[in-house]
């Protein structure tokens, strides 16, 4: 990967970009649906975990409508609570890992003078929990989530981040693995970097990205 100028700031998605989410979510998925069934809120077969992984990057309400379209509103609301509870319990127990070379690369980018941020459509406690339990929280100048700011799109979330930190007019990259990340970058006039090493979305989602990387270290370019 080559670049004309090193970025002043980099904004990262979390799931599928920094965090290899299936290393946590496979077990969490089974626990969520087992509990829903025990509580009488869901009686159908447990949806395949691949369906949930394929919805990463969506807002939670949209995610559950895709994962269990026939479920009641009560079941989806309860699933929100259970998902966060079991994710945080898993993270605290040491489950889930970052993609290879993420921590070392982030540290080198930080040492090189770049400001680092996270922008995720996830819940605040989850997004900050991943950063905390995987030891990278202190590397970021800001960790933004749709859950904390109540944004309807990632374009809106990234716009708020840029305004809050005075990044307008600077060289900023948006790095992610889903079409929502590319849209967030392009919608805010940023260079977009697609993470082709992730496996949760389709390859077509990154067609509009400026650059594709297959190894996180390529960001050091």
UniProtKB/TrEMBL annotation:
Range of residues in the leader sequence: none
Entry keyword annotation includes Hydrolase: yes
Residues in coiled coil: none
GO molecular function: phosphoglycolate phosphatase activity
InterPro entries on file: HAD-like_hydrolase_sf, HAD-like_sf, HAD_2, HAD_sf, PGP-like_dom2
Gene Ontology biological process terms in this record: DNA repair
Keywords, in A-Z order: Hydrolase
Gene Ontology cellular component annotations, sorted alphabetically: cytosol
Cited Pfam families: HAD_2
Keyword Phosphoprotein in record: no
Protein name as catalogued: HAD family hydrolase
Organism: Paenibacillus soyae
